[in-house]
Design brief:
Elements lengths: L9 H20 L4 H7 L1 H5 L3 H8 L9 H8 L4 E6 L4 E26 L5 E26 L2 E7 L3
Antiparallel strand pairs: 1-2, 2-3, 3-4
Helix pairs in contact: 2-5, 4-5
């Protein structure tokens, strides 16, 4: 009986690496969906009225929802602001959206080469590279007064 292990085919190794990467991403990003937040906080979710539970499960919020309802529906805000007026102080939760963009740009580099006589020469070469970036924008803001949503501001596309 041989104790030698056979190497797995590349597509199986890639699948294992992908599964591990997804598990790590889930751990790092925390609760990414309403369902995962419900599983993490069942006691919080169980006190919501049935019609609110349905909405929150779909990721929908309304004026009058508590901060717990908004958290279960949308997750942690990307930013929290405090807006003070002469009458009150409100907490504003801001949720970001992202646009993923790319472009092709020329890159000019100095290269060394040997000419036909074997002499070392230098020249320039231009190649096109794909440049990717993410644009973040505020997509939604929710204002809370005394723990209840008093205003919801959503970006129109």
């Amino acid at each position: 009986m041989s104790t030698e292990r056979k190497a797995r085919p590349w597509h199986i190794r890639t699948g294992i690496v992908s599964a591990l990467a997804m598990a790590l991403l889930t751990i790092m990003t925390g609760c990414a969906t309403p369902e995962s937040r419900i599983k993490k906080h069942p006691e919080m979710f169980s006190v919501f009225p049935p019609e609110v539970q349905e909405r929150v499960r779909l990721g929908e919020i309304r004026v009058g929802d508590t901060s717990d309802m908004v958290y279960i529906a949308l997750g942690h805000p990307d930013r929290v602001y405090t807006r003070r007026t002469s009458n009150a102080s409100v907490e504003v939760w801001a949720f970001s959206g992202h646009n993923y963009r790319h472009d092709y740009r020329p890159v000019r580099a100095r290269v060394a080469y040997h000419d036909s006589d074997g002499r070392l020469r230098h020249g320039y070469q231009t190649d096109w590279v794909r440049v990717e970036w993410t644009e973040e924008y505020e997509a939604l803001r929710v204002e809370f007064l005394d723990g209840s949503a008093t205003a919801i501001e959503a970006l129109k596309h």
